[in-house]
Amino acid sequence: MSRPPVRGDLSALEGYHSPQLDVEVRLNTNESPLPPPPEFIAELRDAVARIRWNRYPDRAATALREGLADRHGVDPGQVFVANGSNEVIQTLLLTFAGAGRRVLTFEPTYAMHSQIARTSGATVVTAERRSDFGLDQGAVTSKMDEVNPSVTFLCSPNNPTGTVDPPELVTEVVERSPGLVVVDEAYGEFAEWSALGLLGEEVPLVVTRTYSKVWSMAAMRLGYMIGPRWLVAELDKVVLPYHLDAVKQEAGLLALSHTAEMEARVAELVASRRLLESALNRMGVDVWPSQANFILFRPRRLPGGDVWRGLVDRSVLVRDCSSWPRLENCLRVTVGSRSENERFLSSLEEVLTS
Ligand code: PMP
Q1: Can you give the pTM of this predicted structure?
Q2: Domain 49-257 CATH assignment equals 3.40.1010.10
Q3: Ligand 1 touching residue 110 (CB < 6 A)
């Protein structure tokens, strides 16, 4: 028997790789080092016991959408929820990209934007960030005029650089966009400003968020998006029926009643990030100023791949970006707990001076 052929446009795709090694200090996937509060777990246990297990969940996730709308001061009809912000992005791309359409990304950025765009059948056009990883306003808008993209991705704070796109730039991109602009704010709560304030019913802009980072709920796979009502109605046609299970809907809503604890965790991680940044600067590595829960850095004297290996030998795992285009020799470290950060710093010091 012969194997059925995979779609021709998919055969060149490599898939998303994020190696997971068995180490003591795991600082490679930008998760929170801090669990949600114990009260949240106890409340979720009770909520799970009340679920009517023989019935499908609320297809519209009404209560969760209302809770998120309340948190952001928008209408529930402006909120779309899905299994992680990756699924939000996938639904957006199935709706607005696809065969015969172009998607524009500014590299280096989160690899799944282009990966999911390609699986939707769209053509991905990549443009460059500046060497400080900011975006040049003139270059961005002329690229948009040239490419005429159906979807343009911004990512703020940007993964893996940690850099934030300023309000003037996002405003200009949205005004000049011939299609939809997606601002991926997976790390939005760590940053000093959000594009949420630019949203409007006739503005071609959506902002995506996730429970995976600031809400300490990466295990749950829950993300959401805020945008125009008409656009959410289109996404609701594309996403599978009952895509969001009842446990997730309960958990997402319950988490919102622990917003103060989330904000305290975010403040703690931002303070730790500042300490890490200063320590890295003192070690004489190149550091890009970050507004997320991770830091991109480049050891100057040793190849990035060797430093990554030296850290793994000391049971510390960071993300090795050293062979990625435009990120030669760079590594990305997630802000961990105080003891994890100390262990990372002392291990790095050893590697750099050995
Ligand atoms: N956007 C960015 C910029 C990310 O870094 C990530 C996760 N690494 C995601 C989206 C996907 O997050 P989720 O867990 O919500 O699918």
Answers
A1: 0.96
A2: no
A3: yes
